Amino acid sequence: MNGLRNKNITCPVCHQVKPNHEAISGELIQPAIVELIKKDAPGWDGLSPICFNCLNNLNVDHLQKLIHKQKGRVSNLEKEVTETLRKQEVLSSDLNAAFDKNLSFGSRLADHVAAFGGSWKFIILFSSIILIWIIINSVVYLSGRFDPYPFILLNLVLSCLAALQAPVIMMSQNRQEDKDRMRAENDFKTNLKAELEVRILHQKMDELLTHHWQSLMDIQKMQIQMMEKLINGSIRN
Fold it and tell me: Measuring CA to CA, how many Å separate 100 from each of 12, 111, 178?
């Protein structure tokens, strides 16, 4: 058993020498993958072992064909996901840190202004200022009134504030929409990769189970042969 495990094989697809335990027999590979192997290696006999690395790449190619067959095309996002499967890379990342890192000073300022303008602190502070303004300019005997009723200057200040605050809030909302779009794309890629990895895992489990049953059958044949030899030897004696 150790001799078989340490034996090296030459993969017919990548033509690299690999240990025997890093390959799988051609008899245990699914028919759809077998067709892809025969395209890449026309001289393959269908029985020689294939290394796991090539088998993983062929599984990814097969998944891309399935996506193209189901949807009619493979999008850039789906290509990115399948390439991470091929390279066995991690797909998930911290989108908030990546997005906030590229924000300019004006964008950060707009976010802070929008956050302050939508808080109870702003409402209480601005309501207090307006109330004080009205009280000061409503006292008849106060000689220092600068905006008497109907508070035309106050209306002008409020209009200017609303005119400036609206585009700042819209800027912040547009950036939040971009962040939500990036988060949705990342969720889609993560879910798609998880689905494809589960499908590949099922294929590998089927191949391992088939290989396990084949090994058990070989052991059973050896046991039957040994029993036949023992029976024949006892009969002769």
Answer: 48, 11, 12
Structural domain including 146 reads 95-188
Work out the number of other CB atoms within 10 angstroms of the CB of residue 216: 10
175, 107 in Cβ contact below 8 A? Answer: yes
User: What pTM was estimated for this model as a whole?
Assistant: 0.45
**Same domain as 9, residue 70:** yes
One-letter amino acid for residue 114 of the chain: A
Mean pLDDT, range 22-32, rounded to an integer: 76
Q: Which of 45, 74, 103 is the C-terminal boundary of a domain?
A: 74
Please count the helices (runs of H) and the strands (runs of E) in the chain: 8, 4
How many domains, the chain? 2
C-alpha 233/C-alpha 226 separation (Å) is 10
Are the C-beta atoms of 193 and 129 separated by less than 8 Å? no
Q: Are 49 and 11 in contact (CB under 8 A)?
A: yes
Domain shared by 69 and 101, yes or no: no
Helix (H) or strand (E) holding 9: strand 8-10
Which pairs count as long-range contacts for 62-69, CB under 8 Å and 24+ apart, including other chains?
62/32, 62/33, 62/36, 63/196, 63/199, 63/200
pLDDT of residue 125: 92
**pLDDT, tens digit (0-9, with 9 covering 90-100), for 134-167:** 888 887 655 667 778 888 888 999 899 888 888 8
Distance CA 11, CA 153 (A): 84
